Amino acid sequence: MTELELRPAAFLDRDGVLNVDVGYAHRPDQIEWVAGAPDAVRRLNDAGYRVFVVTNQSGIARGLYEETDVRDLMAWMIDRMAEMGGRIDDWRASPFHAEFQADRFAHLSHWRKPEPGMLLDLMSHWPTARDGSFIIGDRESDLEAGRRAGIAGYLFTGGDLDAYVREILT
């Protein structure tokens, strides 16, 4: 498979799906992988899916951390995932929040889930077949973003992510 080949994608929320949601994680020492996360990503890779991470990061607008912190953490997460045999192809983060520095990030308001902007942006940069693509999130806003982008959505409420992905793929 090539990078330019039309393929389905699995869009994964970050906090609560890939890693335990500790609230405003922005450093590696705050990351604890959800059970089965590396195996789930590898399973998706092996099944021919591109794997994308889409994450609301209002902690930036709230002044808790900077965009560079999110970039650095995502680079670290991608590297750790690769060491565990999984590949995250790309990611997007939305710093927008209507109640905090809304003017500063207004140009990204369409990226904050439940808006589909992050998903649509990834689809515009990677040849993505909507048929077969889906999002896994831990909130209804994640699933709504998927609906608005024209893809299926699955609510992950905890447990083993690999077992959950296995069920989706069967």
CATH class: Alpha Beta
Our Rg estimate from Cα atoms comes to 15 Å
What is the CATH homology-level superfamily?
HAD superfamily/HAD-like
Biggest sheet strand line-up: 3-2-1-4-5
Shape: globular
Q: How many extended strands?
A: 5
In CATH, the architecture is: 3-Layer(aba) Sandwich
Distance between the termini: 22 Å
* Number of helical segments with 4 or more residues: 6
The share of residues in extended strands comes to: 5-15%
- What is the assembly state of the chains in this entry? single chain
Based on secondary structure, the structural category is: alpha/beta
Helix and strand string, N-terminal first? EHEHHEHEHEH
Task: Look at the structure and give the mean pLDDT.
Answer: 94
Helix content: 25-40%
**CATH structural fold name:** Rossmann fold
Q: How would you characterize the overall build of this protein?
A:
A five-stranded parallel β-sheet has the order 3-2-1-4-5. The mean pLDDT is 94. The protein is built from six helices and five strands, in the order βαβααβαβαβα. The chain has helices at residues 37-46, 58-61, 67-83, 117-125, 140-149, 161-169; strands at residues 9-12, 50-56, 90-94, 134-137, 152-155. α1 (37-46) runs parallel beside α6 (161-169). The chain has one domain: HAD superfamily/HAD-like (Rossmann fold), CATH 3.40.50.1000. With 170 residues, the chain is α/β, with parallel strands linked by helices. α5 links the parallel β4 (134-137) and β5.
